[in-house]
Amino acid sequence: MIISASYRTDIPAFYGPWFLNRLKAGFVEVTNPYGGPVSRVDLRPEAVDGIILWTRNLAPLLPRLEAVRAVAPVVVQYTVLGYPAVLDRSVVAPERSVEVLQRLASDHGPRVGVWRYDPIVLTSLTPPAWHVETFGRLSEALRGAVDEVVVSFVQIYRKTRRNLDRAAAECFTPQCFTWNTPEDAEKQALLRTLAPIATANGQRLTLCAQADLLLPGVEEAACIDPHRLADVGGSPLSAPAKPHRKTCRCAQSRDIGAYDTCPHGCAYCYAVQSRDRAKALYQAHDSMAAQLGR
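Given the sequence above, the corresponding structure tokens read:
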């Protein structure tokens, strides 16, 4: 089984000690966010084929990454965006994230890290021209550190809309903004501009779960990718396809995170309903608990 840790929260940034304790214990308990009983997930090396880490800040876990790799091959899906503070309230500076990704490549190889410029949010502060400039700067800085950049356009779930509307209402000049959902043609025009920038810096531009926007030079992403894990681990790894969404190319995995536990405070977040609740759960969590958020 491939373990996903976690697209529901940022385990490397905030819950690294808990995660290491669960690996040491050999199991974790996970609550089904849609109801149902708590399940027990086996984390022993013989049960885990690979581990996908999702993060905005790997730095707290990086010194202990070898302990994670001792269990199974690791791939890090690392989001670096550089958005204005009103959109990313508590995220480390992009320059720091670039440094960490460069160190990750130097210490563990360039196939371990995948840069995520995701989600792309179009606002009055971040119009297409802003994205072209920012993406280009980050892409050049990450030349040689990553060979793939995953992009997608923000999907406006109910939580996402509420969080964006709240951030827009609470802003202060000059950080006030409006946001919009562009037409597909505008999205594709931006992708058409970003793709050659990525290519020039040795990076494949892949698109996550939005196959209707694909065009030449832009491939479908497989964020849970057994082929990359096999490359990193140096041995074959097979896993059946089991997409999280209808147009997703991910392999089967088991996510061990919990919603409403990430205190980053991103304005476009789909995984947190209440920033205050997320902060409270983070501050109160027990690193020895069998389940995250307890």
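The beta strands are 2-5, 27-30, 39-42, 50-55, 74-79, 113-120, 148-153, 204-207, 219-220, 253-255. Try to locate this feature in the token string yourself.
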